[in-house]
Design a protein that fits this description.
The protein is an all-alpha fold and about 140 residues long. The chain is about 60% helix and about 0% strand. The chain has helices at about 20-45, 55-75, 75-95, 110-125. The radius of gyration is 22 Å and the shape is globular.
């Protein structure tokens, strides 16, 4: 009774695309959260100097670019755009004057480099060749 005629399965096989929508939604939500975290960290650190060198802005832009490339490699342009949206929201919320009048992103050179340079990092990741993120050879 263990022959091939009795080896049929009674559970239906789900279609190939079933269950993928929630994975895509989860990736998008995680990308938004990651972009927001990177935006907050970069905003806090972008004015840091080390021996009169602008180490904070360099590190903030580097982590922004690495986040953008990670999201692009992870799941394509959708999560990249989601991470960019999270980054923009975090940076713009922190750029507004707080209740005491303090501003984390002042209208100085380093603040403008952080704001526009961070956006440029997402654009760089968006326009990288698709072949860099593919597993196919050739």
């Amino acid at each position: 009774m263990t022959g091939p005629e009795h080896a049929t399965s009674t559970s239906p096989v789900p279609p190939a695309g079933a269950g993928r929508w929630w994975r895509s939604a989860a990736r998008t939500l995680l990308a938004v959260a990651l972009g927001g975290v990177v935006g907050v960290l970069g905003t806090v650190a972008h004015r840091t100097q080390w021996h009169d060198l602008p180490a904070g802005i360099v590190l903030a832009l580097a982590i922004t670019l690495s986040t953008a490339v990670l999201c692009r490699a992870w799941a394509g342009l959708g999560p990249l755009l989601a991470a960019g949206a999270g980054w923009v929201v975090a940076v713009q919320v922190l750029a507004v004057a707080g209740p005491g009048g303090d501003v984390l992103v002042p209208a100085q050179a380093v603040g403008l480099v952080w704001t526009y340079g961070g956006l440029a990092m997402f654009l760089v990741a968006a326009f990288l060749p698709r072949s860099w993120f593919s597993d196919r050879r050739g």
